[in-house]
Amino acid sequence: MLYADIYSKHATVCAKCTVPESEFQLEGDYLIGGLFDIHQVNSSFYHHRPEAIDCSSAPFILSSYRRFQLMRFSVEEINNSTKLLPNVSLGYEIFDHCTDSVNFPGPLNLIAVNGLIQPLEEPHKNLSKVIAVVGTYTSPQARAVAPLFMMNLIPMVSYGAASSIFSRRQIYPSFMRTVHASKDVIEVIFSILTEFNWKWVAFLYVDDSYGIDGLQLFLKKIKDTDICLAYNKALDHYSDYKAIFKQINAQNVNVIIVFAPEWTVEELMKSVKQINVTNKVWIAGDAWSLNKKIRDQIQGIKSIGTVLGVAEPNMTIPGFREFIYSFKAQTHCENAKQQKFCNQICHCSSLTAEEIIDADPSFSFPVYSAVYSIAHALHNILQCGAYGCKANIKVYPHMVILCLLSLNLTLFKNCVQVPTSVCSTECDVGYKKTQYGIHKCCFNCTICPNGTYNNITEDPYSCINCNNTQWSEEGSTSCSLRVVEYTPFTDIWAIGIMVGAFILVFISLALSVLFALNYNTPVVKSAGGPMCFLILGCLSLSSLSVFFYFGEPTVAFCILRYLPFLLFFTVCLACFVVRSFQIVCIFKIAAQIPKLHSWWMKYHGQWLFITVAFVTQAIFLLINYIYAPPSSKMDIYWNPQKIILGCDIDFKAALISLVLPLLFCFLCFVFSYMGKDLPKNYNEAKAITFCLLLLILTWIIFATGSILYQGKYMQPLQSLAVLSSLYSFLLWYFFPKCYIIIFQPQKNTHHYFQNLIQSYTKTISQ
User: Fold this and answer.
1) Which of the pair, 706 or 489, is modelled with greater confidence?
2) What GO biological process terms does the UniProt entry carry, in alphabetical order (predicted)?
C-alpha cells in the first residue's frame, strides 16, 4: 500500500491560509480533479528526505490563476444549469501544480481512497470519487503525473499539453486534450515560412519534452524541403542569451522561431532588450503568442522587428466577468479554515477583479471546453433528460473515457448544421479506400505512396503502379512522364571536353614534329627515340574514346567509349615499361647478365614486348565484348522523376581487360624505383612515377564521384577522367624534354650526356 497522506505530515509548513477553502474544493455528487500551475518553479529542488514543496512561495503566474478561476466558473455554471446535469451536482478538488518533479501530493490525493492507494486492487473496486482530471498545463507536467491516472483509466483532459507523445494511445489510454497538438502548430509555422519564402531560420525551444518534441516535429517537417535550420538551441534557467544571439547574428539568421512557455520567453525578451537584438522576425508558438506581459515587453523593445504568432482561438466566455466580480466582492475571513491538503493555497486576495479578467486569456477556452466535455460525457452516461438523470447508474472513469472519445461537442455556435449520416467520410484525392466490415460505405483512407496513383473513377480501392517511364508523388491522381536525360554534344561540358581532346591531338602532332626535327639528339633518344612517336600516336588514338561519351548512348557508342582507350592506352603503358626496363638494363643488368642484354638487342625485345602486349590486350577485349558486351541502359532508380541514359557494363567480365594495364603500372613502379640513382638525363623514374600517381589519383576521384552521384553528368565525369589520364603522360613526360630541346640546347649534346655517364661510372666504381 502507498499512503498518499505521507506528504501531509510535511505539509504543515505550507498551512498559511488567506483565502477560503472553497476556492480549491467543492463538494458534489461527482468530483473533477484540477491541476493548475498557479505558481511556477523555475529551478530544480534537491531534498535530503521526502517532503512536499510549498508552491505558494514560488513566482505567481496570473494567467494560470485566471484559468484556475475559469474551471471554478465552468463547474458553477453547469451546476446552475437545469439542462446538462439536472439533479446532479459537480464538485472539484484543485491543486496548485507548480513543478513536474517533486509535486506529487496533489495527484496522489486525487487517485486515493480514504487516504490510501491500492494499485493491485481488482479493477473498478474501491476507486476514487474523482471521475476525471482537468490538467495539466505543460507537457513535462503531464508526462510526470499521467501514469498515475492511466493506471486506473481516469480520464486526464489537458488544456495545454501539446507534445505528440500523448497521441500514443497504447501508452496514454485515458489522456485527452482540448488544444491542438504541437504537430498542428508546427504545420502552421511551416506554412508561414513557406508563404514568405523564409528558408534560413533559427529554432529556440525550452529544454523539456515539449520543446524537444517541437524541434523534432519541425526537423521532420522541413526534411526534403528548401528550408534550412541554421541554428537551434535549448533554453533553460541558465541559458547564455548573449552567446546564443552572437551565434545567430554570426550566421546571418533573421527569422527566429521560439517554441517555449511564457515564463521562458519572458526571460528571453529581457535578454533581447539588454543585448539590443533588433530587426528580426519572431515566430511565436501558441504557448506565448497571446501573452499580454510578453506583448508589453516586446512593445518596450526598440526595433525588435516583426512578431508573428500561432494561437488558440481567443473566445469571450459569457458570464465569466460577472463571476469574477461576484467572487471578489465577497468578504473573506482572514482566519479561514486551514487547508486540508498542501498546495491548496494562493495568497491572491490582493488581486482585483480587473487584474484577473484582463490577464492573458491564452488556453482559457480549452479549460472551459475540458470541463464541459466531462459534463457532457456524464450527461450521456447518466442518460439525463428533461426530468433529470438516472440515479441508479454507477459511473466508472473508463465509462467517461468511452463517452469522451465519441463526443462531438460544439460550444458558442449558434448556426443549425445540415445533419450527416455516413459510415466513413470520403477520402481525399490521392488516397485509396480500404473497406472494413461487410459494407462498402465503411472504409479507411490510405495515401498512395510515391510511384503510384489513385484514379477514383477507375478503381478507388487501389493504388496503381506507374510504369518505368513515369513517376508520381505521394497522394497523386495520375502519373507524369519522366524526363529522359543524357549529355548531348551541345552541352557546355561536352564541348569543353571535346575541345580538350582536339588540343591533345594537336599537341601530340606538334611534339612529333619537334622530335622528328631533333631525332638524332640525345634528349630524343633518351626519351625513347622511335618509341616516342608510338606513344604520342597511341595517346591521340586513345582520345577517340572521349567523343563517344556524349549523345544518346547506343551499343556502338558504349563499345567505342572503352575500346580505343583500353587498347591504345595499354600500348602506351607497355612502352613506358619497356623504356624503364631498357634504361635499367643498360646501366645495371647488362654487366650482370650479358646474355639477356644480347638477346634483347638481337631480337628487338622492346618491339616484341609491345607487340605481344597489343595482341594480348586485343584478345582480352574481344573475349570481353563477345561474352559480355556493353549495352545502353536506363537508370530509373537514382532520381524518381528522371531517366538517366548510360551504358551498362559487366564489371566482372571487364576485369580481364584491366589485367594488363594494372600489371604494367606495377612494373613501371618497380623499374622506376630500380633506376632512381641513374644519371638524371637517363633517369625517367621521377617523370614516370609522377605520371602514374596522377593516373591513380584521377581514377580514385572518379570512383568516389560515381559512388556519390549517378546523374547525367556521370558520363562527362568519366570522359574527363580519360582525358586527364592522357594529359598526365603528355604533359609530365614529354614537356620536360621539349623544354630542354627549345630552351636549354646546351644540355642536348653528346658531350653533356657523356660527362653525366662518366660521372655515374666513377660514382659506381668508388
Assistant:
1) 489
2) sensory perception of taste
Residue 715, Cβ density class (10 Å: 0-12 exposed, 13-18 middle, ≥19 buried): buried
- How many CA atoms, within 13 angstroms, populate the side-chain half-sphere of residue 346? 24
Cis bond leading into 136, ω under 30°?
A: yes
How far apart are alpha carbons 117 and 124 in whole angstroms?
13
More confident residue, 462 or 683: 462
Distance (Å) of CA 524 to CA 411, 511, 732, 760: 99, 11, 15, 20
* Residue pair 241/188 in contact by the 8 Å Cβ criterion: no
- What pLDDT is stored for residue 685 in this prediction? 66
Query: Letter for the amino acid at 737?
Result: K
Average pLDDT for the chain:
84
Tell the residue number behind the cell numbers 526534403, with chain if given: 224
The tens digit of pLDDT for each residue in 193-232 reads 999 999 999 999 999 999 999 999 999 999 999 999 999 9
Q: How far apart are CA 576 and CA 729, in angstroms?
A: 10
- CA of residue 448 relative to chain centroid, distance: 23
Phi/psi of residue 744, nearest 5 degrees: -135, 60
Are 470 and 482 contacting, i.e. CB atoms less than 8 angstroms apart?
A: yes
- The x, y and z cell numbers of residue 248, run together, are 545567430
| Fold designation for 25-179+317-405 | Rossmann fold (3.40.50)
Copy the grid coordinates of residue 307.
512578431
Contacts of 416 (CB under 8 A, 6+ apart): none
Q: What percent of the chain has pLDDT over 90?
A: 37
Report the DSSP pairing between strands 452-453 and 480-481: unpaired
C-alpha cell at 532: 616516342
Contacts of 178 (CB under 8 A, 6+ apart): 157, 158, 159, 366, 367, 369, 370, 373
Q: Report pLDDT for 8.
A: 35
Cα 198 to Cα 182, 254, 288, 424, 640, distances in angstroms: 21, 9, 22, 38, 27
Helix (H) or strand (E) holding 90: strand 90-96
Model pTM score: 0.52
Residue 360 backbone phi and psi in degrees, to 5: -55, 120
Distance CA 201, CA 210 (A): 20
* Spatial distance between the Cα atoms of 157 and 134, rounded to a whole number of angstroms: 5
DSSP class of residue 30 equals: E
Question: Any idea which fold 492-765 has?
Answer: Rhopdopsin 7-helix transmembrane proteins (1.20.1070)
Render pLDDT for 235-270 as a digit per residue (tens, 0 to 9).
998 899 999 999 999 999 999 999 999 889 999 999
Answer yes or no: same fold for 182-309 and 492-765. Answer: no
Domain 182-309: give its CATH superfamily.
Answer: Response regulator (3.40.50.2300)
What is the sign, positive or negative, of the torsion defined by CA atoms of 528, 531, 537, 538?
A: negative
**147 pLDDT above the threshold of 60:** yes
Residues 744-760: pLDDT tens digits? 888 777 777 666 655 65
DSSP summary character for residue 332: P
Domain segments of the chain as ranges: 25-179+317-405, 182-309, 431-481, 492-765
Q: What is the pLDDT of residue 16?
A: 42
